[in-house]
Design a protein that fits this description.
Elements: E1 6-10, E2 18-24, E3 29-36, E4 39-46, H1 50-61, H2 70-73
Antiparallel strand pairs: 1-4, 2-3, 3-4
Length: 86
Amino acid sequence: MFGTKIGLLGDLDGGHDELVMRGSLEAGALIGWYLRDGRLAAALIVGQPPEAQEELNGLLRGRARLAHREALTDPGASLGAAFEHD
């Protein structure tokens, strides 16, 4: 969209009950965390490196459970910092 690459990872067919944003379109880097029942259901990404996409895909495959909500919006936190590690 207007020179900006937007990606959607995961599955929103089952819906979501919360969307938490990190970053902004204006800054050129954004992650939208779609949560359903306290687990990561999907992620909207803009301006993220391939490594971030791989890490998010791993979290989605593992149905990552939210553990540290504040890390979702913290740009200094790693992508997996918000989730439990089974």
